[in-house]
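Give me the fold.
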Amino acid sequence: MIEVRDVSRVYQRGVDLVHALEHVTLHIPAGRFVALMGPSGSGKSTLLNLLAGLDRPDTGEVVVAGQPLSRLDEDGLAAWRARHVGLVFQFYNLLPVLSAVENVELPLLLTTLARAERRRRAEIALAAVGLADRARHRPQQLSGGEQQRVAIARAIVTDPDLLVADEPTGDLDARSAVEVLTLLRELNRAFDKTVVMVTHDPRAERFVDEVMRLDKGVLVDGGRP
């Protein structure tokens, strides 16, 4: 599913160069649930952004679902992302004026699906995360854990090959965090989704197939074929 080959990423911060990733090589088979862990500033989110096609490496190659991402221009990358990647973030990014089902439906507005089919798929995705009975509620009527589940439903509604999650439990209490981790594991197993998650949460380790650890931009554990 994912091949990262000798990837480096350097940022300019003022007059300084920040080596976010240095010569990272890793392999993630399809259907795996992987956690990227490490201290703040270790390059976890940078790596996740590269896998999702949100950023480009300075050197090296990223191949996801057979597609070398460097061969796509910005429009091609956006179209590829819309078809193949579901994104989940620490903050749910739900539109407060829309109901849960309308928020989930948003990615489908970029498709040619009829309105009724978009709504049907959004309702199926909400049911998959256990919120069928909350479809008409707006975000402010939902708990933090429920809002994150709506965000996960929005991420899976396009049936992506890859689900990437950046600190999905970072803004949740302990009980809601476990519920979200359990849900991600269930989606991984039930639908054979490849899931890559950045997290500081030590509870996450018991839910995933593998932990890959980074430190100062270097992969120090995991990810080797």
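The chain has six helices and ten strands.
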